[in-house]
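Re-running the complex after MR caught last week's input typo. The corrected sequence lines follow. Everything else is unchanged.
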Amino acid sequence: MSERTLILVKPDGVRKGVVGEVVARIERKGLKLVALELRTLGREVAEEHYAEHRERPFFGELVEFITGGPLVALVAEGPHAIKAFRGLAGATNPVEAGPGTIRGDFALEIGENIVHGSDSPESAAREIKIFFPELGA
Ligand code: DAT
Ligand code: MG
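Corrected-run output:
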């Protein structure tokens, strides 16, 4: 069953120059790019995107970080796209992410872990609507 997922190469990934590497891994896995855009998030969009974390102690830092520079937002599509990309990304904490995963290969700190990927069909639909409303449901 084909599905879509919202992926971000966060500002640390853009700063480190690994956008091409991340996109290459997505394509090599067999996922298809449906939308892709470089943009800098305003506070409101960032807070909406991370709404589920609003009460967490790191929320302020998270919003500062994600708005702190340009990021690449993209939508990828394919069978099990959500789980497939979470596999490519690796564990949230980069020191626990295995070698060969994006976070395992390119990051060391949980607050700067290079990529975001939707974690369920519901969050994918919600997040895609935030970044690419023109894609519809
Ligand atoms: P994921 O990005 O793997 O879905 P998440 O949704 O739990 O992870 O958290 C969103 C982001 O918030 C995560 O990519 C990095 C940041 N984060 C999570 N836990 C954190 C913590 N304990 N301290 C600092 N930042 C954290
Ligand atoms: Mg998450």
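None of the earlier attempt is carried over here. The helical segments are 11-16, 19-29, 43-49, 59-66, 81-89, 102-106, 121-131. Residues 2-135 form a domain with the Alpha-Beta Plaits fold (CATH 3.30.70.141).
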